[in-house]
Amino acid sequence: MACCLDLKDIVELVVAPVHSDESIAYLECKISEHRQRHQELFPNIRLLPKHHYLEHYPALIRLFGPLIHKWTLRFEAKHSFFKQIARHTNCFKNIPLTLARKHQLTIASDLHSSDHRTPLLVTSVSSVPIDVLQSNIATAIKQRLPDETDVHITKSVSYNGMNYNKGMIVVHGQLFGLPEFAEILQICVLQGKIHFIVKKLSAWYREHFRSFELDTSHMREVPTMAQPIRLRVILGEDDARKLILPAGIPDSIQELCQTVKTSFRLQEDFRLQYQDADFGNDFVNLSVTSEIHDKATIKVVYLSIHNNDDTMTRRPLAVQGSTDSLSVSSVETDNTEPASSSGSSPSTRLSIWPSVFTIPSFNYDAELQLDKANAECSVSGTHLSPSPKLKSHILEKLAEEIIKFKAYPTDNDLNDVAEALVNKHPCLKEQGSFNGCYGWKISLKYKMANFRTKLRGLGCHEVTINSLKHKAQDKAALNVKKPRRAEVNYCPQHPKGETTDTLENERIALLSEIKKRNNDYVVALKMEKTFSYRRQEVLQGQPLVADFKSRWPALFTQKEIDNEFMRISTVPLMSTFFAELDQHSPRMMELFRRKGGAAGKKIKQIMVAISKDDTIHTRRACILKSLCVYLNEDHEKLVKEYMNTDTEANTSMEKTVMGVYIIQKEADPGDDPEDIGVLIEGVKVLSGLGDTAIACALLFGLIYCLNLSYPPELKCTFEVLQKILLKLDGQRLSSKAQFLKNKLIG
Known about the structure:
Elements: H1 2-14, H2 21-41, H3 49-52, H4 57-64, H5 80-89, H6 95-113, E1 120-122, E2 126-129, H7 135-144, E3 150-154, E4 156-159, E5 162-165, E6 169-175, E7 178-190, E8 193-206, E9 211-216, E10 222-224, E11 229-236, E12 239-245, H8 253-264, E13 270-276, E14 282-285, E15 296-302, E16 325-327, H9 364-380, H10 388-402, H11 411-424, H12 438-457, H13 461-464, H14 500-513, H15 520-529, H16 531-541, H17 545-551, H18 558-569, H19 573-594, H20 597-612, H21 616-630, E17 639-643, H22 649-654, E18 658-664, E19 675-680, E20 683-686, H23 692-705, H24 715-725, H25 735-745
Parallel strand pairs: 11-15, 12-16, 17-18
Antiparallel strand pairs: 1-4, 2-3, 3-7, 4-5, 6-7, 7-8, 8-9, 8-10, 11-12, 13-14, 13-15, 18-19, 19-20
Organism: Collichthys lucidus (Big head croaker)
Protein name: Sterile alpha motif domain-containing protein 3
Region (Disordered): 314-348
């Protein structure tokens, strides 16, 4: 069996359309292993010359590129079919060339004729009442097509040249680079359009068989290849808006409410009502989503939060641009199930990815096998070929250890784990591999994908936030929300005993607590408690900064930004930032002085301020500005100065996407600035800071707190701050950042 699986891997690698140095080295390793196993299984069988050609494939790939682009057709005398063609066509010269040309013409004809092909071809259609179908299929059809009583069904259909049959397993989409599968339960044709009723399947990659094992998903069957749903949503008196659901109506009331709440940024709890035709289109409470259909009208009815008459203003938050129409691709519901006990979230991580990964201990019998194999390896050099059970156990334990640090480990992270594994257990080293552990890294990649599937089924927010249950057919699964800047607690679970509703009440109470004097301790406790709720709001809702500041004003202080950054990355922001900046300052100033050309002139102009006021605050500010210039970026995009008499200052600041502003006094430029603050999306999120370097550090912290992207014009500067000063994901550097790091170390 192992010999056959090796051949399967070899074939996949040989015909792969893209290759890297690692994949070619891995191919050499697999060919060597296959030869060894073949000799062990069949010691008396000699390989034919044609079998020996396999040894040359890696070298040929290095010379000519992927072999799939170099395939040729070889004619053999025993091919009687081709001999008949030669006789019928009276062509006996260069038969492979003739056949190849005919084949190319056939392919070209198929490609060009596809534009004229009938997009939908159906045969053997029968009309049946919807009610006689299975209940789950009938429910799915009524939900999408509420006005239909009969439906045309068929067992097979050709759609754009592709044949589909009832019971076929199809790829429904992809998530994290792995396919998602679904089974076609029924094929319906209405008004010239095809509707598939499918049942989603859970996919698990089985390392032993190099294939996917499919299992019935607990998710409800959903129709695909259907039209978007348009709803008229009444939010209040004289306030009706349009909501577009490209993937159709959600399965549950909770999901639909969450979609409406997120799309229109509603702050209060509410219920939904719909127009019931049985009662003259009067509004009735919505209990199941099957009651609504395309172009239906639903009404938002706000619920009172307090028992007294004091209620909050029942208006949605402002939405950037036009609010007449909103389109939602996918929305995930919050986990509102109460936990068993109080306390912090069990998923909260306490440290970043370790510089040296520690391999955990395996179970007793696995450790015995590995100890024995390690002893034999040290004496005779014999390596262990682990059984499927042992390999599965090793991968399971490694995945459990990896998830303590990351749910989405990078390729470098998995390589670190694989190298640590073969270093601790040399018997597991792969013979012929360029680093002895490439196969383990690939196995870990699939294992982590299976592990995330398991976590998604358990409701882990860090994974379910990327679960596209209602992805539109014409849209790819883009914008996957996962840590990209070494965030340790990217999307944590709610604390034990807390739900979305209880944490929303904590947020409302927090608005009152920040108005009290000497109340920093209580504010800090509530900010810590609501961290998971705040992160999910940032990641799922992606609110405007102005709206988010009005909901979480306590976050926009120096102390809480430092605390929030610590919660996200486990690294203290302010102390680490300035300690590393001061440590590298002498070397940086030396590098800046050596810079020539136009950049050198700009740096000299910036450094003039140090000669006038040689304080630590001035040096830090000048070094940060000069760093931008050294990296060929505009320092005024990071720090922009205005005069207090400049009438255009406010207009310019409102157009600033992200940066630090300084307002100077016109009377005496040598005096301290009138104001220093931070601008994001044209909003003054921080003011009165009094120090340019502190403002830059807080701006960097807010990028993490609000999950913002680095501005393209300052990408290298923020990369240096992140990876060199704060040492977050410092192993992967761009060429500019790596060049600067080498200079600082040298």
